[in-house]
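Morning run. Coffee first, then this:
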Amino acid sequence: MKVGTFVTFLPVLSVAFTPVHFKSNAFQIVKPSTKVLKLNAAPLLSVASSVTSLKANTEAVQDAPKKKPTFFEIYTKTMNFATNLFPLWTVLFTVIGLKSPSSFDWLTTEYFTAALAILMLSMGITLTPEDFTRVLSRPNSVLMQFSLCYGMAPILAYTLGKVFKLSPAMLAGMVLVGSINGGQASNLCTYIAKGNVALSVIMTTATTLGAIFMTPLICKSVLGTVVPIDALGIAKSTLEVVLVPIALGMTTNKFFPKFVEAILPLAPLVGVISTCLLVGSSVAQVAEPIISAGLPLQFAALLLHLLGGLIGYILPRCTGFGEVASRTMAIETSMKSSAFGFLLAKLHFGDYAARVPSAVSVVYMALTGSILAVIWRYIPVKRNEKFDRDIVNKYPPFKFKTFWNKLLGRAEKEIKN
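And here it is:
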């Protein structure tokens, strides 16, 4: 073989016979040393040992007995499941109230009031005085919801009554529903929806006390009818049913925190049961007019609560309020005290048909509020978001001079000089 040819094939030969040593123009295959083998085998042995150990641990975990869930864990899962079905329970108790009104004969006025008080107590133990201090330091959300309750809702009720061509008596009943205060069940729905319960309680109290003068004023302005209201009676009922149980729950939370921590998981269950009993009893008392109500009234009552809730959420969000406050206002606006409206229509409206809208409203109020609560329960809230924003900061007051100078193209520095 020529030297040139050998040099040409030299790289190929070096790859084919690696490792090799060239010596005296010949090549010789070199055997790997024992030392190299030992160095390379050590990591392999370590990996094999790790795999064997991992396999043994996996088999041990599989063979180990599974830990049984505790009673508290089972209860918590069951409670979450039951709370998520809140709209279903509302429909079920409504159907029972319609089909068998006598099933709620045992729920007299005293028991009805007690159920409301228990509902408020179950919410009160979740609150602290600091929660109310925080709300009262930012009253703009309370004022916004008050305007929604006694401004937007009556206008919406009157508009829907006209659109669906309700009779004058039923139109009066619709306006009455739109002109009454928020219901106490809104506090429970706010709790389920992860809203601000303290804000909800203050809104309920504010609109309930506001009903003393706002409801007669609206009915007189829109309907030309004076609806006399027992102001002292409303204030007394608000004190007994709302404020005292809430205060008792907060006091218990402050001085007996361990006891409250132990019974706190019961709060949603107690609230759901109380609300369902209240809905069933309210429906049972007016089962006949609800069944005999026509489809136009059914649609009008449903839209009053549904659109009221949507507007009660969208309007605060568009004007700078936070997610939690907006959810709270939406539920509070959607859930009217329809049972109170029925009582007022029964006492002060001569035509029987005027009571029917309040009776139908009981069903859709509870259904709409519970659906909103369950939906929002699964939509997370960003915790770094403010409680609510100051509307003035987002939308500063209009100043004509500043606007005119900007319109003329004058710079800020020029304006100051």
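The beta strands are 20-23, 26-29. Good start to the day.
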